[in-house]
Specification:
This protein is an alpha/beta fold. It has eight helices and 15 strands. Helix 4 (120-129) links the parallel strand 7 and strand 8 (135-138). Bound molecules: phosphoribosyl ATP (PRT) and zinc ion.
């Protein structure tokens, strides 16, 4: 029986959410990340624990069939592999930052400057696109201290809350790319492996769709059902069941996280009572 080999980060910012996602997809692994490999007990897959920087290469070579990695690393490594699914975690951006005191006028400011980064390929693409000639200084860590010690005039690094930049007297001036964790795959999977991957992606979609939706129960006076139903599109239309109390019904539906609070306000105005909101574990559309 063929197994899908999944490359994931051994330790670091992606590790916990990656293993949590696979677990929510029903994959149970026999040993922790202190070993190189782990077997899924109930799914034809095995995990390879790697440094995130190595994942694109392993997937291109086919040593791993798929991998979970930051989009920033995927773009930087520029390997011949495919994005199969965006995973909605480890969201961040790769940005250019300069010392706070700089009067930044636009990308032309960067002409002739020295930019420290761990992402030379992406920075180079950005500079070419903006017709800027600058010197790229590649360093592998602590990029944010480079301007302070006179190593560079600007940096290009990952930003999430912005507190690292702030703490180093820097300000963000350009967003180069947005990134999140993604699932990448080898270009030429066997039919058997492709089928396992399709199954896994189906489960990932069910888990992630569920995370973005809530199950909603409420009581409605019968005369308001029509108006409330219009606010609640649900997966098809809401389930309506009569309450024992004359003139009232219970409505069940699914609402998207994005416009959740707006919907609640509208429902209250229309006369809904006893509103319950319940997390959904899996959602298959
Ligand atoms: O050991 P290995 O090579 O596997 O890991 P790593 O040290 O290279 O990567 P790791 O674990 O730090 O990050 C893995 C991935 O997480 C990155 O490639 C990004 O896709 C994603 N990610 C999300 C982040 C951040 N958020 C993040 N905030 N990666 C790094 N940071 C760092 C950033 O480099 C900077 O130093 O956090 C600092 C900025 O954070 P704020 O919140 O202060 O802005
Ligand atoms: Zn790394």
């Amino acid at each position: 029986m063929e197994k899908l080999r999944i490359a994931i980060q051994k330790s670091g910012r992606l590790q916990e959410k990656t293993t949590a996602l696979l677990r929510e997809c029903g994959l149970a692994f026999t040993n922790g990340p202190n070993r190189l490999k782990a077997d899924a007990r109930n799914f034809p897959a095995e995990l390879l624990y790697l440094r995130d920087d190595d994942i694109p290469q392993y997937v291109e070579d086919g040593v791993a069939d798929i991998g979970i990695v930051g989009e920033n690393v995927f773009i930087e490594k520029n390997k011949d592999i495919k994005i199969k699914e965006k995973l909605d975690f480890a969201k961040c951006r790769l940005s250019i930052a300069v010392p706070k005191s700089v009067e930044y006028s636009g990308t032309e400011y960067l002409n002739g400057k020295k930019i420290a980064t761990s992402y030379p390929f992406i920075v180079n693409q950005f500079l070419e696109k903006n017709n800027v000639k600058a010197e790229i200084h590649e360093i592998s860590g602590s990029v944010e201290i480079a301007p302070g010690i006179g190593l560079a005039d600007a940096i290009c690094d990952i930003v999430s809350t912005g507190s690292t930049l702030l703490g180093n007297g820097l300000k963000e001036v350009e967003t180069v790319i947005l990134s999140e964790a993604i699932l990448v795959a080898h270009n030429d999977l066997s039919t058997a492996k492709q089928q396992i991957l399709d199954k896994l992606i189906f489960r990932i979609k069910a888990v992630n769709t569920a995370k973005n939706n809530k199950y909603l129960l409420l009581n409605s006076p019968n005369h308001a059902i029509e108006a409330i139903t219009n606010v609640l599109p649900g997966m098809r239309s809401p389930t309506v069941t009569p309450l024992k109390e004359e003139g009232w019904s219970s409505l069940h539906s699914v609402v998207n996280e994005d416009d959740f609070w707006d919907k609640i306000d509208q429902l209250k105005e229309l006369g809904a009572q006893g509103i319950l909101v319940i997390p959904i574990e899996k959602m298959i559309l």
